Amino acid sequence: SESMELSLYLNEKISQMHDMYKQIIAPYICVTHEESVSKGIPIGFTSSAILANWYLSDFDADIKSKINPAYYGRYVDDILFVFSSPSIQPSEKGKEIINFIDSALGDFINHDNKGDAIFRLSDEYHSLPIQKDKLIFHYFDRNHSLAGLRVFKQEVENRSSAFRFLPDEHIESDLDKFAYDVLLNGSANKFRSIMGLAENETELSKYISSHILAHRLCNLTSNESTLKQITLFFRGENCIRFSRLWEKVLAYTLITKKYTFSRSFYKSIQDSIEKIKWHGDNDESDISSKIKTAMNEYADISLCLNLALLDLDVILNDTQETEQKELIPIRKMINGDADKVKLIERFRDSNLIRHNLVS
Questions:
Q1: What does the pLDDT look like over 22-69, one tens digit per residue?
Q2: pTM, full prediction
Q3: I need a labelling partner for 296 at 20 to 30 A (CA). Which of 19, 60, 103, 104 fits?
Q4: Rounded distance, CA 163 to CA 213, Å?
Q5: Cα 347 from Cα 312, distance rounded (Å)
Q6: How far apart are CA 356 and CA 236, in angstroms?
Q7: Are β-strands 119-121 and 194-199 bridged in parallel, bridged antiparallel, or unpaired?
Q8: Regarding beta strands 119-121 and 180-184, do their DSSP bridges make them parallel or antiparallel, or are they unpaired?
């Protein structure tokens, strides 16, 4: 049939993409990620999520047919089980999770200590590791309070699209309140229990997203302190560690028309990338160069994906007079840079812009 022919054609093209990707990274992955030389799918590829679902389709079917829990749901690599009458004994204190998984899911999940993983899917399901810090076990008894379950239900509802346009505490609070977690050892009420601070990428991302949404839909004045806090947060190593947020920060500065800050933030990214150095068992200067090139390309994509939303007649034509003087810093930044101009035009022509940012 026509649909089958199209499916086979697309499957062949996806296979070619992955083969080419693997061929390109082959000289480097054997040094940087030796455990992933023989298998794995690239993070970030659109097809990777499709392949991940396909690889676990047998796992889904077998869970439902052989165990049939009260509820089973999976979104790519996030899995939720609900068992109506789990057998947990008081004598198991401290070993409830291990014992329950061994007894209820023993045919699907193996208990081992290879690398950082305590559990892995069985060989039949590709021996995929389960991250121990993301394994959460909740026990609810009908004779006890279900407050925790109600809080979880409310949190899910609050994150739904129906609540997205309501004001929240992100708008009135400083970035620092959300960007860091306090690490404690013992009582939270004692100063000596504070061990340090850890950056919270998820909350920071939500904070910036809230501000982007609010500024796009409402007539809000931009907060200069937010830009200062962004500058401080993305200094040094953090600028590289949280590279996934570059595009979002640049989107915020463009939505608020802080174009001079957009330019300085992009320059700080370039400066941080230049300091990258590979520290491995071997002196692989070629790897350092490869990382820098890739990170610079990613920075350009993060920038140009946002610039494609602006008035291209102004930012791409340095001879044209304009009343939009605030765009001049952007025009100067890309003036004479053919690669950036090409990226911007390709994003606009292909309509692969962030449509949620278009008013």
A1: 888 888 888 887 777 777 777 777 778 888 888 888 999 999 999 888
A2: 0.68
A3: 19
A4: 12
A5: 12
A6: 31
A7: unpaired
A8: unpaired
